[in-house]
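Dear all,

This email documents one entry for the complex benchmark we are building for the journal club exercise. For each entry we list the sequence lines for every component of the assembly. Then comes the predicted three-dimensional structure of the complex as a token string, followed by one or two observations. Please use this as the template for your own entries, and keep the labels exactly as they appear.
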Amino acid sequence: MDKTEITFTLNGKARTADITPDTTLFTVLRALGCVSVKCGCETSSCGLCTVFLDGKPVLSCSVPAFRADGRTVETLEGLQAEAEEFVMFIAAQGAEQCGFCNPGYVMNTIALLRENPDPTDDEIRAYLAGNLCRCSGYEGQLRGIRAYLDSRKKGGAEL
Amino acid sequence: MTVKTVVRPGTMEEAYRLAQEKNAAIAGGMMWLRLEKKKSIGCLIDLSDLGLDKIEKTGEGLRIGAYVTLRMLETDPGLNEYSHGALAASMKNIVGVQFRNLATVGGSVAGRFGFSDVICVLAALGAEAEYCRAGRIPVEQLIKEGNAPEHDILTSVLLPKALPLACAYQAHRNTAADFPALNCAVAVYPDGITCAVGARPGRAAVLHLPASELSVLHSDAARRAYAEKTAETLALGSNSRASEDYRRALCAVLVRRVLEDADRQIAGKE
């Protein structure tokens, strides 16, 4: 197999990686230390591996690494400030159990709120349909997001 | 899946030449190709430099580039106006937003999957698939014949210039984000109605009603009768998602519902 080097921006920093044509972006990101990116299914089904590619949420297990060349990738490691307040609400609602799905959920919620800052419950459910959780019934995540949005409307963090 | 080499051609001519090689494959969204664990690809052809990620209004209709993602289809205001929201309705349950940001319309059409929500709506809308050398093939024909042009490249999907008076989509899924057990789309034009029923589990069957039968839309009794007749006569089968009998029951309901939706649109009641 041909080997090649890609260069891309990862969480604001230029990074390079040696890849083969069938290397996935997931593999590259984990090798570069982005351990928030989890492997759940490898079949594009669960959302655990969600990252942003040029600002859009994608499944890193399904993105060939060569497609990241020259582009911008963000993981939760680079979005700590944006995620910080929101994840407190998720935790306060008991939405985390094993926590394995959590990074993917947070990433996709950030994407949702960037696209739609004031979603309805139905819009939240629709947008997050690609994030599976084996532990919960998804209501905790919805409550957490709703509590965060309501708090934001009131102007501050009130868990 | 293993890949020996990836090439990113600068022209369609170069891409087509590469596609003639043995074990060559076109890299669309890669959502399905990647899952073919035993597949060995010699040359993976990435068309990212060929400007196929655009939706353009042309004199002939709306041209959707093969690399346009399902999420772009879902959220494009022009396409949603054209299809009365049916295109967005067909996409919204396909796995998740992250998936739809990667899967492409070219991959969906070229894949000719029986379960495809995308193909069902495009067939009802009279869309054509444009290939590099084979030219335009109606999606209805592409899926019926069962053979795509060999070693050719699907470059875009063209929606006809004539706007449908109404267009509606319905599907039944056993669980959210799963493949549909059955899907159905209808498009209404002044000269007739096109109804597509897919996930049979086979590829969509396309039915045409002439202008003289437009009245089927406008009464509950007529819609019900047409839907039940379609359910009785359409070739349906069984798989893990539904039995043939269940699909017949679903068909009678979904066809009736899309006709109801279309009637509401025409009457301006939506």
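Observations: The CA atoms of residues 37 and 49 of chain A lie 5 Å apart. The first strand of chain A starts at residue 4 and ends at 10.
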